[in-house]
Design goal:
This protein has 492 residues and is of the alpha/beta class. 48% of the residues lie in helices and 15% in strands. It has 13 helices and twelve strands. The strands form three sheets. The chain has a five-stranded mixed beta sheet with strand order 2-4-5-7-6. Strands 9-8-10-11-12 form a five-stranded parallel beta sheet, sandwiched between helices. A two-stranded antiparallel sheet has the order 1-3. Helix 1 packs antiparallel against helix 2 and helix 6 packs antiparallel against helix 8. The protein is elongated.
């Protein structure tokens, strides 16, 4: 702005001096033509004319300087250009920050898709193996449900990453929280517990659903980073009457009923000096390369754009809570509804039974004979559809299956089991206790137990989860034949 002001003043000064010289010359010519001065009497009138003109110009320059310094005058074109540039930068910052979040989600999205592909492939194989079986309709519904979930994930990801602006719509914050729960859980990782508490009734606000997803993601990531050793994030939807002077509400916003979303973490908290800076653009307490300092600044901007506001409360050592507020509105006809992914029942037509073609053995494995006796397998998997599929597959081979949905439960089942456990078949990344730690605990209880890991993450990531480099790993997606082949090989 200072550069623009100086340019304006310089142009006016040069123009004024030029005008003064020309005006003085014209004045002397007129006086000579009227015979009011001689041919040699030019100096004094000329100086007087130029001085008067320059004094007037100097007064104008001083006045302009004062007005420009107070931003009282700005060319309309320049003002429009600056406003347009500000909007473009703001939009680019929003999109850049969303792309950063999408990048963080990439590994988790791949994990989800590997799980879904395992379900689709596995249940499809069971249908092909026994197309007229009693479980065929249920297996077909599992395939349809997994396919719809995959479609839902891609639509949410594309909607979140889009650059185009969307218009605010009427949406229920309970539905918004439910729809983003899975993505938030993947974003923060399975070592942090995510608890969501919807409001007792539907609560509607006017807001951009994509932006609301971005707000929740930014706050969840900040909460995750405040708990490097794990913890709990609680997101709660509530309703609150807010008057002037309460909850740090800006005075320009009206009093009344506001929808509140609070995001609480059990992290290290924020000190009083830092808490006053956290909404500033590019301010960050994270290490270089681990944060842009744009997350909370963008959250504040989004809330302002949607006629809401944000406040924060924190105590060092006791965690932090962010509160976002949006004015409550009535349900409109254009209410926003997320697509649901519950599979509808389907009728599977009768098919001609065809000879079953056995899938070739997985590369690098040899045919292994079916086991004698009844080996016992402890199956630990947090995804219920994967757990059911694998259990159903192994039960067809007459294995005795013990089930657990996470590591700590797996240890409990192993301790309470009366008898020998031959194989631990476990997922790697799970809430609470992961597969690597579970395998160590299982070895202490059963020194001769074999261990088979399964995972949808890249093999290079498994070392960080405590999986030995030479450990057998069944990579998702897998088919029932691959499950049976690897289990038989380990138990041979």
């Amino acid at each position: 702005m200072m550069g623009l002001k100086n340019k304006i003043l310089l142009i006016i000064f040069v123009a004024s001096v030029t005008s003064a010289v020309i005006t003085g010359a014209v004045l002397i010519s007129i006086l000579k033509m009227q015979g009011l001065m001689g041919e040699t009497e030019t100096t004094m009138p000329y100086i007087v004319a130029v001085a008067i003109y320059l004094i007037s110009t100097l007064f104008i320059l001083v006045l302009l300087n004062v007005l420009l310094s107070k931003n009282a005058i700005m060319p309309a074109v320049e003002r429009e250009m600056l406003e347009h540039e500000r909007e473009m930068l703001n939009e680019q910052l929003h999109h850049s920050q969303k792309m950063e979040a999408v990048g963080r989600l990439a590994g988790s999205i791949a994990h989800d898709f590997n799980n879904l592909l395992t379900i689709i492939d596995g249940y499809s194989s069971l249908i092909v193996a026994d197309p007229r079986g009693d479980e065929t309709v249920q297996n077909a519904n599992e395939v349809i449900g997994a396919a719809r979930k995959a479609s839902f994930i891609t639509r949410k990801l594309l909607s979140f990453s889009q650059k185009e602006k969307t218009e605010p719509v009427t949406l229920d914050l309970n539905s918004t929280l439910q729809d983003t729960h899975k993505m938030l859980a993947r974003l923060i990782g399975e070592k942090i517990a995510l608890v969501t508490k919807p409001y007792d009734d539907a609560i509607y606000v006017k807001a951009d659903p994509v932006q609301m997803g971005q707000v929740l993601m930014n706050l969840a990531v900040n909460a995750r980073d405040a708990m490097p050793n794990g913890g709990r994030i609680t997101i709660k939807v509530d309703s609150k009457e807010i008057k002037h002077g309460e909850c740090n509400k800006p005075d320009k916003l009206a009093e009344g009923t506001y929808a509140e979303i609070s995001v609480h973490d059990t992290g290290h908290g924020i000190d009083a000096e830092t808490i006053g800076k956290i909404f500033e653009a590019f301010f960050t307490t994270k290490e270089s390369g681990k944060g842009t300092g744009l997350g909370l600044s963008i959250v504040k901007t989004i809330m302002k754009e949607n006629d809401g506001f944000i406040s924060v409360s924190s105590k060092v050592g006791s965690g932090t809570t962010f509160h976002i507020y949006l004015p409550v509105c009535d349900l409109a006809d254009d209410a926003y509804h997320q697509d649901k992914v519950e599979p509808a029942p389907v009728e599977v037509p009768a098919v001609e039974e065809a000879p079953l073609q056995k899938e070739p053995a997985p590369e690098g494995t040899e045919e292994v004979a079916a086991p004698t006796g009844t080996p016992t397998i402890l199956l630990v998997e947090d995804d219920p559809m994967i757990r059911t599929l694998v259990a159903q597959t192994l039960e067809t081979q007459d294995y005795n299956i013990l089930l657990a949905e996470e590591g700590w439960e797996g240890i409990k089942v192993a301790r309470n089991h009366k008898g020998k456990i031959d194989l631990l078949f476990t997922d790697v990344v799970m809430p609470g206790l992961g597969g690597g730690e579970l395998a160590v605990a299982a070895k202490e209880l059963y020194p001769d137990i074999k261990v088979l890991f399964m995972s949808g993450y890249a093999r290079s990531q498994l070392a960080d989860e405590g999986v030995p480099e030479d450990a057998p790993v069944l990579e998702k997606p897998f088919t029932p034949d691959k499950v049976i082949g690897m289990v038989r090989k380990l138990l041979a």
